[in-house]
Amino acid sequence: MRSTTFLMSFIYNCAQKINRFSFKVINYIDRSNDKINNEKWLNIFKGLDKIIFQIAEIKLNLYKDSILSQFIYEGFEKEEIDFMLRTLNQNDFFIDIGSNIGLFSLIASKKVGSKGKVICFEPSQEIYGRLIENIELNEFKNIEARNIGLSDKEGELKFYFSDQGFDAWNSFAPDSRLKKSINVNASTLDKQLDNIDKSKIKMVKIDVEGWEKFVIKGGHSFFANYSPIVMVEFTEENTFNAGYSVHDIFIELESLGYEWFRIENGNLIEEKKHIHYPYTNLVAKKRVDLS
Predict the structure, then answer these.
(1) Main-chain dihedrals φ then ψ at residue 286, nearest 5 degrees
(2) Which of 21, 61, 71, 287 is deepest in the core (most CB within 10 A)?
(3) Are 226 and 188 in contact (CB under 8 A)?
(4) Is 162 a member of any domain?
(5) What CATH number is given to the structural domain containing 121?
(6) Which domain holds residue 235?
(7) Do β-strands 229-234 and 280-286 pair in parallel, antiparallel, or remain unpaired?
(8) Does any domain span residue 11?
(9) pTM
């Protein structure tokens, strides 16, 4: 029995090391591709700093200095957006944790209508400013944007960011791409939802570059007592940077009655734990909601 346990531990540790090495190679390739495509991307702007992009019946400012804007222009997370649109209905509430410039928040706002509500969280002051620009561009009145980070406790957190275009990777977890840091205010999801009718919250999106586990811990009461559908980014490199494994995210929500699924051709397919997750978005649903 001990030898079997040792062998499994050895295999898992080896997989972690291989995964870290693979990500170094992938990151290098990604950066190279960004440089190759940079001239083509800049030509779209014709000397402007931003352009207005139409997507899913909303308008979105895309920014010349933003790799995330380039990703959105190229069809970023279309399958996840389609799933969100199928999930939300008129009058629903949607929570967007790690909203960045507002892609998911704005599309959700349009879908849930004037009697629905979107609450979004973005800790970066600069990105929050762009989020507000996009909300005003669409004249949406049902979005409440909060310039604060979410974690497992209230206080100040060091927030890592870059001014080299890597705005998609801003995080509370250290990352070699993020050369700068500032202290920002952090709260918990449970605290932030104090005065909200939580029974109306249909869906929560969590994309916080490795801080997902701590966000879920900070919303323990909400997730335990209510049944929102939760879409979570799984990126093993980011969770390693934050000092844990994506398995911890699995376990955290499973312990609260959730089961995990992947989105495949528009359908939810049951997802079992894998050794590692280079990058994907998974969906968690309460067992009582499964049919």
Answers:
(1) -65, 140
(2) 61
(3) no
(4) yes
(5) 3.40.50.150
(6) 75-289
(7) antiparallel
(8) no
(9) 0.86
Q: In what order do the strands lie in the sheet with 180-187?
A: 149-150, 180-187, 155-161
- Identify which of 90, 184, 189 has the alpha carbon closest to the alpha carbon of residue 142: 90
What is the chain's length?
A: 291
Q: Which amino acid is at 266?
A: G
Residues 6+ apart with CB under 8 A from 154: 186, 187, 188, 191
**CA–CA separation, 73 and 67 (whole Å):** 10
- What tokens does 8 get? 């499994």
Per-residue pLDDT tens, the chain, 291 aa: give them: 545 544 444 454 444 444 443 443 344 335 434 443 588 898 999 989 999 999 999 999 999 999 999 999 999 899 999 999 999 999 999 999 999 999 999 999 999 999 999 999 999 999 999 999 999 999 999 999 999 999 999 999 998 887 767 777 788 887 777 778 889 999 999 999 999 999 999 999 999 999 999 999 999 999 999 999 999 998 888 899 899 998 999 999 999 999 999 999 989 999 988 777 888 999 999 987 655
Overall domain count for the chain: 1
Helices (H), the chain: 2-43, 67-73, 78-87, 103-112, 125-138, 189-192, 212-218, 220-225, 236-241, 246-254
| Amino acid present at 59 | K
Tokens read off for 49: 């700093």
Distance of CA 2 to CAs 15, 46, 275, Å?
20, 65, 21
**Within a domain: residue 213?**
yes
